[in-house]
Amino acid sequence: xxxxxxxxxxxxxxxxxxxxxxxxxxxxxxxxxxxxxxxxxxxxxxxxxxxxxxxxxxxxxxxxxxxxxxxxxxxxxxxxxxxxxxxxxxxxxxxxxxxxxxxxxxxxxxxxxxxxxxxxxxxxxxxxxxxxxxxxxxxxxxxxxxxxxxxxxxxxxxxxxxxxxxxxxxxxxxxxxxxxxxxxxxxxxxxxxxxxxxxxxxxxxxxxxxxxxxxxxxxxxxxxxxxxxxxxxxxxxxxxxxxxxxxxxxxxxxxxxxxxxxxxxxxxxxxxxxxxxxxxxxxxxxxxxxxxxxxxxxxxxxxxxxxxxxxxxxxxxxxxxxxxxxxxxxxxxxxxxxxxxxxxxxxxxxxxxxxxxxxxxxxxxxxxxxxxxxxxxxxxxxxxxxxxxxxxxxxxxxxxxxxxxxxxxxxxxxxxxxxxxxxxxxxxxxxxxxxxxxxxxxxxxxxxxxxxxxxxxx
Length: 458
Ligand SMILES: Cc1cc2nc3c(=O)[nH]c(=O)nc-3n(C[C@H](O)[C@H](O)[C@H](O)COP(=O)(O)OP(=O)(O)OC[C@H]3O[C@@H](n4cnc5c(N)ncnc54)[C@H](O)[C@@H]3O)c2cc1C
Fold this sequence. Notes:
Layout: H1 11-16, E1 35-40, E2 43-48, H2 57-62, H3 70-78, E3 92-98, H4 101-106, H5 112-122, E4 128-134, E5 142-147, H6 150-155, E6 179-182, H7 185-196, H8 200-203, E7 205-211, H9 220-228, E8 237-244, E9 250-255, E10 260-264, H10 265-268, H11 272-275, E11 293-297, H12 301-306, E12 311-315, H13 318-329, E13 333-337, H14 340-346, H15 348-368, E14 377-380, H16 384-400, H17 403-411, H18 414-437, E15 444-447, H19 451-457
Parallel strand pairs: 4-6, 6-7, 7-11
Antiparallel strand pairs: 1-2, 3-12, 3-13, 4-5, 8-9, 9-10, 11-12, 14-15
Bound molecules: flavin-adenine dinucleotide.
Flavin-adenine dinucleotide (FAD) binds near residues 158, 182 and 350.
């Protein structure tokens, strides 16, 4: 791979370049009192308590915002590359859901993640679960939470579509205990990297579970959506759920004034081009490939027709498969085997958006001298037409994020913008499908030495 420059060398460089993904990995080797995460309009950034101190060199090594050497992590963690690069290493795969109707309803897709966390706690296989908590410290904010009460796990079920600094929980863990944790893909890769380095806090995570991850939103998206629904800026948010109600669910926000906003998932998707969280455009992992268990929505007309909640479930090792079989035998979850090709087809669009889209976007930045991560994996095949499509996509995201475009969005009522956006999205999907799906079935990722590694030795 040829790149023109790599100006990044430290955590302050990452923050300065607006690349920080706010995961908290850099705090891992610090005592909890020496550094914290701070909330911003765009997410979270780390700060040293004493600004005259400097970051330990390990913080830079651990930082996923510059990219990580994913090929190397693959070999060290799984001892192999995936057979099918679209979904990562698979031990077994199913369509599944929790059998408890309340857990299934509370869950984002089928509640299987929550059922598993509850099972691990109830059977004392872990001492606590580290999960995302929408509503901490305020209803519109989200942070990590260490949970020992199964009831609370059910309350905190559901997807959180704004950034959560999950790895900032690590300094607070007790290395004599065992934990389950939920992470987004870049955090999961960073956690594996920390575990491989022998970090004792990271090693206390014995079960790593993660959602398939397409896109997240910057926190300012919430107020923008409320304004577009005519909610007064002064009206306080009392409660917010991203995926309330029956699958696929709707976003629900309750205001102090008594107003309740409900927006079906397909409609608040229109926030994405305007308020996408920028790291969503830079990560190449959709199926959360470094977890023990990955769970996504089972998008297919058959399941969507039924509602209720269905997930696609990937166990990445025999221990996790045995655990799920144990839960199935105890009647806690329902599982139906599914073949890799069928499962991969459900998410072809997003797999391409990450594996080829993010790669092209990052490469484009490198060529232009704009800081971007490097993951050390290049997709093949990658035709010129696919690259051109990406220029259109990048231009749309760029235009969408401008103040003018955001202001226009807010002035069109969601009841109009939602359906229009949905139609446009489906049209664009159909139009770009031939280029985006071309060669996807045979996609491979070719490892190379990432830019930040080569420039470190220059
Ligand atoms: C930002 C984001 C984007 C996603 N994009 C897609 C997509 O494009 N396609 C798709 O098929 N699925 C996507 N998902 C996954 C999907 O929404 C469900 O999370 C997944 O199917 C698991 O469902 P479940 O019912 O088993 O989870 P639940 O039983 O509801 O449990 C979810 C668990 O994950 C934790 N969690 C939620 N959000 C976060 C977060 N941000 N960081 C860390 N932990 C978290 C919760 O605390 C909870 O413990 C996305 C999820 C997220 C968070």
